[in-house]
Design goal:
The complex is a heterodimer. In chain A, 74% of the residues lie in helices and 1% in strands. In chain A, strands 1-2 form a two-stranded antiparallel ribbon. In chain A, a hairpin with a 2-residue loop joins β1 and β2. In chain A, α5 runs antiparallel to α6 and α12 packs across α14. The longest helix of chain A is centred in the middle third of the chain and has 28 residues. Chain A is globular, with a radius of gyration of 20 Å. Chain B has a domain of 218 residues. Helices cover 73% and strands 2% of the residues of chain B. In chain B, strands 1-2 form a two-stranded antiparallel sheet. The longest helix of chain B is centred in the C-terminal third of the chain and has 27 residues. The radius of gyration of chain B is 20 Å and the shape is globular. Classes of the chains: A mainly alpha, B mainly alpha. At the A-B interface, α6, α10, α12 and α14 of A face α6, α10, α12 and α14 of B.
Chain lengths: 330, 318
């Protein structure tokens, strides 16, 4: 993205700016806390441990998908097929688990294959966008149609149930703690480890200035492909969470989630143009979307108005996310 | 590069060759596909897409990552408004046209204001607006019946109007001529290319960049509104989210027409061919006897293949 206004880094900026630079997800956190408080005002019950656990397990899939999207956005790309990848992995693992009997071994093997399918989808996207140099928006839209076709081939109609072992584990407790918190903990460790790798730095360098990254000697094509691979991996993880939550397969389930994942990335304070992203922000952004939806419900909005109020509220927080993110980068 | 290769590298020429090839393919797969009647039907469907793509085209030409994801929502909204305003009576057509144009311009204005005043990236702004529009559709649907198209409007879209060709195809041709004139012969058109290629330079040269961009989003909203009105005439009554399919297909039509998503380069004539190409491809896939999953896979793969014919990004050079 070429900035038209001259960027002058103000030297005397206060402590707030340095805080924002170090923790770019702060605005998203503030929005999230405000929404939590509002939820508590309208329905104190919605802040109970039980409700929050429910919210987390419902929106964990969107959290994963938003993180998936963040890695491609880091490199200045976008993936409109993330939702279709999620659908494909969802139906594939449900069908495989069912075919292999639904035991623990079957579940684990199906999940392993699910990860491979996600990676394969990411690889396809990486090849068409980075190696064949097609425009990311239209090319990943085309691949999303292809992946949706594959998902429909694997499972023509929605409804095949996932084995009880799988969704009982996801929705249940382990040593008294809801399973979804273990998912969150593993995710946190994974994100921390990834943030220490050279790969993420390279993605950001490519997103910041592709030409400069190339001239510095970075293999730009390979870096962008890796971004799409990460996106495919996290889309597969998103599919696991979704399957745990819905307990069934649906070849079209992810279609609507793609645009929400982009919204969550922007809400979190990342720049869609690339080069400046925050996975923690995207995580908070996805939860924000969930909280907006629950707040609209708890406010007692008439059912026919709920979609409109949700749409309006998400547009407003999107604007806030963009403005706050820009303030942090300025 | 020789002039012959240059000729065959023009997006419009590529699209026209592909159109002829696809028609031939369709005809050989199912005889009668390229008959005059069928081609007219394909042209009607293509004109609906082409009209939406006209607005998408100017927004994309205007650059700064210009894109309008809300067109699908405006198409659906306009179809509902039109159905209710005219409600089956020819006398209601003119008020319906005005109401739809006003609605399209209004949402375009909101998009434009968000993109210019608040400097929200167009993708984000119009994505958010799409959510608002979809919510609005739910509200409207619960409150009032969906309404019907006036017979005059249906006839305009589906029946021969002049020289055996339906009115909507004439309308599309007129829009094509208008766009060609506007983009090539008017100051406004030249300014679109100017802000699309280098916004800062255009600003320095005195182009009212913000007003221009707001105008482009309003044009996009109004073209989507016209398409929604015509879509109502085509289907007789509106149903939920009729316009959803136009969101990304209008962008693909623009890309197949050789307009770069980076802005500042391209035109509408190619987009018209791109819209026709896309519609013919979909037409072939519906005539071939394969199930939905195979159809989608072939469609996705063909889109990717076709994109390879068009301007790919430049390879990195040191």
């Amino acid at each position: 993205m070429t900035t038209t206004a001259t960027d002058i880094r103000s030297s005397g900026a206060g402590g707030l700016r340095s805080w924002l630079e170090r923790y770019p997800f702060l605005p998203a956190l503030v929005i999230l806390l405000a929404l939590l408080a509002l939820n508590g005002v309208f329905s104190p019950n919605s802040l109970s441990f039980r409700s929050l656990t429910g919210l987390l397990s419902t929106y964990m899939a969107l959290v994963m998908l938003a993180i998936a999207q963040t890695y491609v956005v880091s490199a200045g790309d976008i993936d409109l097929s993330a939702g279709a990848t999620l659908s494909l992995v969802n139906v594939a693992i449900v069908v495989l688990m069912e075919r292999w009997g639904g035991g623990a071994g079957a579940v684990l093997l199906a999940l392993a294959l699910g990860v491979l399918i996600g990676l394969a989808c990411g690889l396809v996207n990486g090849i068409v966008v980075a190696a064949l140099r097609l425009q990311a928006i239209v090319a990943t839209f085309a691949t999303s149609i292809f992946f949706t076709g594959l998902a429909l081939y694997v499972m023509p109609v929605a409804g095949t149930p996932a084995p009880a072992l799988f969704w009982r584990t996801y929705g249940g407790r382990l040593f008294g703690v809801p399973f979804v918190f273990y998912v969150l903990a593993v995710l946190a460790v994974l994100l921390y480890l990834l943030s220490r790798t050279r790969m993420v730095t390279e993605l950001l360098a490519v997103g910041d200035d592709q030409q400069a990254a190339y001239q510095t000697g970075l293999p730009v094509v390979a870096v962008r492909v890796k971004g799409y691979l990460l996106c495919g991996l996290f889309s597969a993880l998103a599919a696991f969470c979704l399957t745990g939550d819905t307990a069934s397969g649906d070849p079209l389930v992810g279609g609507k989630m793609t645009l929400y994942s982009v919204a969550a990335v922007v809400l979190g304070g990342s720049a869609l143009a690339g080069g400046w992203t925050t996975v923690v922000g995207s995580l908070l952004g996805a939860l924000t979307i969930g909280l907006v939806n629950s707040l609209v419900f708890f406010m007692g909005t008439p059912s026919e108005w709920q979609n409109f109020v949700q749409g309006l509220a998400i547009l407003l927080v999107l604007m806030a996310g963009v403005l706050a993110g820009r303030r942090a980068r300025a | 590069m020789s002039s012959v290769t240059a000729f065959f590298k023009q997006p419009l020429v590529v699209a026209l060759i592909l159109i002829v090839a696809l028609l031939y393919l369709g005809q050989s797969l199912s005889p009668g596909f390229a008959s005059a009647d069928q081609i007219l039907r394909l042209l009607i469907v293509a004109s609906l897409l082409g009209i939406v793509a006209a607005g998408q085209n100017v927004v994309i030409l205007g650059g700064r990552e210009g894109i309008d994801l809300s067109v699908g929502g405006v198409v659906s909204l306009s179809a509902i408004i039109a159905g209710n305003v005219m409600n089956g009576a020819d006398g209601g057509i003119l008020p319906a046209v005005l109401a739809c144009l006003a609605a399209g311009a209004f949402f375009g204005l909101l998009n434009g204001l968000g993109v210019t005043l608040l400097r929200i990236p167009p993708l984000v702004m119009t994505l958010g607006m799409l959510g608002v529009l979809q919510g609005l559709l739910v509200v409207i649907r619960q409150g009032i019946p969906s309404g019907r198209a006036a017979p005059g409007l249906s006839a305009f879209v589906t029946q021969p109007f002049a020289f055996g060709i339906p009115g909507i195809i004439w309308l599309w041709i007129a829009i094509g001529l208008f766009m060609a004139f506007m983009l090539n012969r008017t100051v406004f058109g030249h300014r679109i290319y100017a802000i699309g290629s280098n916004e800062h330079a255009a600003y320095m040269a005195g182009v009212p960049v913000h007003l221009m961009r707001i105008g482009l989003f309003m044009i996009s909203g109004m073209f989507a509104a016209i398409a929604g009105l015509c879509l109502l005439g085509y289907s007789g009554s509106s149903f939920a989210n009729v316009g959803e399919q136009y969101m990304l297909s209008s962008i693909i039509a623009v890309v197949f027409g050789g307009t770069s998503l980076a802005g500042g380069k391209g035109g509408y004539t190619g987009t018209m061919a791109g819209a026709l190409l896309l519609v013919i491809l979909q037409g072939i896939l519906t005539t071939v006897n394969i199930d939905e999953s195979g159809r989608q896979m072939v469609f996705g793969a063909t889109l990717l293949l076709l994109m390879l014919f068009y301007g790919r990004g430049r390879a990195m050079r040191a």
